[in-house]
Amino acid sequence: MQTSLVANLLPQARTSWLGKIALVVLGTALLTLSAKIKVPFYPVPMTMQVFAVLALSLAFGFRLGLATVLLYLVEGAANLPVFAGTPERGLGIAYMMGPTGGYLLGYVLAAAAVGWLADQRWDRHWAKAILAAYVGLMLIYLPGLLWLGSLIGWSDVLQKGFTPFILGDLAKMLIAALAVAGVWQITNSQAARLE
């Protein structure tokens, strides 16, 4: 397994179980915060969850990225108000079975795929990082749209679950990929200067 960005920046995270647990818990806190942030955007306001899932997966790699998203979903299933619109729109399993349930499943698929690609060093070059994040974004949308369509019908699924969000999500995907690849470039150039 290749070294993730977070393990490169925090070497103790490679060997310390306590450090890994702290990173996963911190990651779930960032996911929760990202769900609560509403950014004005046309045609609908957007949260920053897609950005957080993709950035954390690129920075953490497969194991920590996947563990972070899974713990986040466990927290939500345990009635903690970690998702967008909670507690106002419900809590727990009932919320997770609602219209956004497929997207939540997509976070798991995205974390696994993007984290695995990051472990293959795709997070270190901007073009590969963008491609990895794009794969993750499509893995969020696929189960999201399938689940939403099964609930609301197929005629409106793109209009309600894709079109209002895709431009913002593409922007968040680009920012996440470029940020992680940029941090790698900075750390690599600093390491080269020290040699």
Write the H/E string, N to C: HHHHHHHHH
Query: Count of helical segments?
Result: 9
What separation lies between the terminal Cα atoms?
24 Å
CATH architecture: Orthogonal Bundle
Number of domains: 1
Mean pLDDT: 93
Q: What top-tier CATH class fits best?
A: Mainly Alpha
Query: What is the CATH T-level topology?
Result: Arp2/3 complex 21 kDa subunit ARPC3
> Largest sheet at a glance?
none
* SS content category: mainly alpha
Q: Which spans have pLDDT < 50 for at least 5 consecutive residues?
A: none
Globally, the shape reads globular
**Helix fraction by DSSP (H/I, runs of at least 4):** over 70%
Structural account:
The chain is mostly helical and 195 residues long. The chain has a single domain, classed as Arp2/3 complex 21 kDa subunit ARPC3. Helices cover 73% and strands 0% of the residues. The protein has nine helices and no strands. Helix 3 packs across helix 4.
Features:
single chain; 195 residues; Arp2/3 complex 21 kDa subunit ARPC3
Q: What's the layout of helices and strands?
A:
Elements: H1 5-9, H2 12-15, H3 17-36, H4 49-77, H5 92-96, H6 101-119, H7 126-152, H8 157-161, H9 166-194
Brief rundown of the structure:
The protein has 195 residues and is mainly α. 73% of the residues lie in helices and 0% in strands.
